[in-house]
Amino acid sequence: MVGDRRDLDPRRDNRSSDIVWTAPAGGDHKFAVTVGIDPATGQVREIFATGKKSGDVMRAWIEDCCVLVSVLLQHGYSFEDLVDKINRDDGLKFGGDHASPLTAVLGLALDLEAEYRAEFEAVK
Length: 124
Hints:
alpha+beta, Enolase-like, domain 1, 3 helices
């Protein structure tokens, strides 16, 4: 069940990286991805992605998708459950070829969260 929105610390940690998604029909799309991480839990609580070309439909689509994902995360939906729901059954999974730019962005977000958690555990 999704509950009330959990406020994020205004000084939360984040991680950023670039990614290139290759469309199944060909053509590369570059995205800059940033995840906001809850420092108390080490979990991703927001995702931002933007395309490199202003005015591009793909850029608008991925930005809108990330807003929706972020709203779900901030209302208590777990990142892992969300990834499970979006992960596809056709062999195009996170960590390999990606069926959509959203699965590519979420796959990178998973990697950035794991990187943060590893750094967090090393500091303990």
